[in-house]
């Protein structure tokens, strides 16, 4: 977010609005200044002097340590012949440090305190942390050293105890003062701001003093060396179309004393921020002396909403003109293909999927997949391929997918669901055929029950070895939509920890001339090769990376159909 650029040239209205914002801020500054001059601090003669007894009896070093609100240790350096710090002696602890040790390490977790002792002998694991380097830097530079998070282990009777703290080491005469705050609260707050893309700050209207949150610069995209912008700087960096709403927000906060919000865009950036601001008053009901605001990056939500609105307008125009059938089919496909990430965690599964449309053809096809939780606690999983391309294939795909989603709530077996799905395909007015794998996962038994309707059988990847799952009794079932009244058999697969099940459409493996056995063999080899190159660690993102590499390995100019790969892993 640039804060040092002038408003865009030629933007007369923008310059006037920016001047109005600055005038509003200047007027409020004058009000706060007059208030401070009227109700300022008392004259020096009115300030009472400290009693002589207080001046003559300063506190002891231990009393000063105990008065600190954070845990503190007083350390004495031990120097080597080269003048470098070789060790440090723990001379004293304050009351907060003693209370922290008693709460974290009850009983005999630490040796009893008997007086000065080497810090690294008392807690040996500290030697492997950043603390020795911080001590050396503090001694060499004379400047306090700060570390966001330092972690070490203490062996207690109940097992090792992990300690995570924000540590500060400051020179203190010929000694060092080591202080820490447990839990890494500041670093966790900064990380939380990054996760939710939210920051906050309080702007003092009298002197432009700013108190930002720790992650303020990172969320707004400001380099560390750039000062936090004042309200005037913020207005100067705002795009012209947002200046009027920013003025209204400042007016409502400063003069009407209301909590209000607006959306801001900054010049040179595509990001959008929602700013929620409130007044900070000198006394209840009195003058507003500061503005406190929370800024949230809403770019993704806004872009998604705008993209959805644009897609809807585009689809309406295409329907009205009855043109570009392939684009309409693409909108329909986006509406029915799930985009799940961690929705299957509650079932003890990780999932990833890749879909590649038929680029040489209409750009869309009949591939589909489904993953939905059922009322009985089981999970419906399916992958299919409606034959053909374009709108007809997508229409059949959507019909079968939604039909299966509704039928699955009957709690009938997968055999029965497949039979019903076949009847739906047979009842279609046009010649409609499709292949499918229909499965139900039983998380309490880690059991996958599945049927095959003319579709390539799933592949099980276990310990880096890939193999097709055995076909149900009697072999794979008939393709959907060929013959009414067809029955199907199910096969059962017990999933072990780390097992990956791969369901795919034949567009991923098929070559011309077609040889299903060779196609399947190429897929098995590619699955094993990609696993050996980089075995996917736990997590949906790692599994997604694996399936994308596998699809890239199988894909090429030879492909004449859309291709889909669905991966399930029991982590």
Whole-number radius of gyration?
Answer: 34 Å
Q: Quick one: how many beta strands?
A: 21
Percent helix among the residues? 25-40%
Distance between the termini: 42 Å
**Adjacency order of strands in the biggest sheet:** 3-2-1-6-5-4
Tell me what you see in this structure:
It is built from 16 helices and 21 strands. By secondary structure, the chain is α+β, with helices and mostly antiparallel strands. Helix 1 packs parallel to helix 10 (240-254). The longest helix has 27 residues, at 12-38.
Key traits:
5-stranded antiparallel beta sheet, 16 helices, alpha+beta, single chain
Summarize the structure.
The chain has 571 residues and is an alpha+beta fold.
Tell me the layout of helices and strands.
Blueprint: H1 12-38, H2 52-56, H3 61-67, E1 71-79, E2 85-93, H4 95-104, E3 117-118, H5 119-122, H6 131-141, E4 145-156, E5 159-172, E6 175-182, H7 185-196, E7 198-204, E8 210-212, H8 216-220, H9 231-237, H10 240-254, E9 260-265, E10 272-281, E11 288-297, H11 299-321, H12 325-336, E12 350-356, E13 365-373, E14 379-389, H13 390-407, H14 414-426, E15 434-442, E16 447-453, E17 459-462, E18 465-468, E19 490-494, E20 500-504, H15 516-533, H16 540-554, E21 563-569
Antiparallel strand pairs: 1-2, 1-6, 2-3, 4-5, 5-6, 7-8, 7-11, 9-10, 10-11, 12-21, 13-14, 14-15, 15-16, 16-19, 17-18, 17-20, 20-21
Helix pairs in contact: 1-9, 1-10, 11-12, 12-13, 13-14, 15-16
């Amino acid at each position: 977010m640039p804060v040092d650029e002038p408003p865009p040239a030629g933007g007369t209205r923008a310059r006037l609005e920016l001047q109005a914002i600055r005038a509003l801020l200047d007027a409020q500054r004058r009000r706060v200044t007059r208030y401070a001059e009227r109700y300022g601090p008392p004259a020096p003669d009115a300030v009472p002097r400290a009693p002589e007894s207080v001046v003559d009896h300063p506190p002891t070093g231990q009393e000063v340590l105990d008065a600190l609100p954070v845990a503190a240790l007083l350390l004495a350096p031990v120097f080597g012949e080269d003048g470098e710090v070789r060790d440090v002696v723990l001379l004293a602890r304050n009351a907060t440090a003693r209370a922290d040790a008693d709460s974290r390490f009850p009983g005999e977790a630490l040796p009893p305190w008997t007086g000065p002792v080497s810090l690294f002998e008392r807690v040996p694991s500290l030697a492997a942390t950043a603390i020795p380097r911080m001590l050396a830097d503090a001694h060499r530079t004379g400047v306090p050293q700060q570390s966001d998070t330092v972690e070490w282990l203490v062996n207690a009777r109940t097992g090792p105890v992990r300690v995570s703290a924000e540590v500060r080491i400051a020179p203190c005469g010929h000694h060092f003062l080591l202080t820490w705050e447990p839990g890494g609260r500041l670093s966790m707050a900064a990380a939380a701001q990054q996760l939710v893309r939210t920051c906050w700050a309080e702007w003092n209207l009298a002197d432009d003093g700013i108190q930002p949150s720790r992650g303020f610069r990172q969320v707004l995209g400001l380099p560390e060396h750039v000062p936090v912008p004042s309200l005037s700087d913020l207005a100067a960096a705002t795009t012209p179309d947002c200046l009027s709403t920013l003025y209204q927000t400042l007016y409502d906060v400063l003069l009407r004393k209301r909590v209000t919000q607006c959306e801001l865009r900054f010049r040179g950036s595509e990001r959008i921020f929602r700013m929620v601001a409130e007044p900070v008053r000198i006394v209840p009901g009195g003058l507003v002396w500061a503005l406190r605001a929370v800024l949230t990056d809403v770019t993704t939500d806004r872009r998604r909403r705008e993209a959805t609105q644009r897609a809807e307008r585009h689809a309406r125009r295409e329907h009205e003109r009855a043109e570009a059938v392939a684009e309409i089919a693409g909108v329909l496909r986006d509406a029915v293909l799930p985009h799940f990430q961690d929705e299957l965690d509650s079932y003890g599964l990780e999932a990833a999927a890749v879909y590649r449309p038929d680029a040489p053809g209409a750009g869309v096809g009949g591939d589909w997949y489904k993953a939905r939780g059922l009322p009985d606690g089981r999970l419906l999983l399916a992958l299919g391929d409606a034959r053909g391309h374009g709108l007809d294939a997508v229409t059949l795909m959507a019909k079968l997918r939604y039909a299966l989603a509704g039928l699955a709530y009957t709690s009938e077996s997968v055999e029965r669901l497949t039979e019903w799905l076949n009847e739906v395909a047979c009842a279609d007015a046009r010649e409609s055929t499709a292949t499918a794998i229909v499965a139900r996962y039983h998380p309490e038994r880690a059991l996958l029950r599945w049927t095959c309707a003319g579709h390539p059988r799933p592949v099980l990847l276990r310990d880096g070895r890939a193999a097709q799952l055995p076909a149900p009794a009697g072999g794979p079932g008939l393709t959907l939509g060929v013959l009414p009244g067809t029955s199907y058999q199910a096969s059962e697969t017990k999933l072990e920890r780390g097992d990956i099940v791969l369901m795919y459409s034949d567009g991923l493996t098929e070559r011309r001339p077609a040889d299903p056995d060779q196609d399947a063999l190429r897929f098995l080899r590619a699955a094993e090769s990609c696993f050996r190159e980089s075995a996917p660690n736990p997590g949906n993102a790692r599994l997604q990376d694996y399936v994308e590499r596998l699809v890239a390995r199988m894909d090429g100019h030879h492909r004449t159909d859309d291709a889909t790969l669905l991966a399930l892993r029991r982590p």
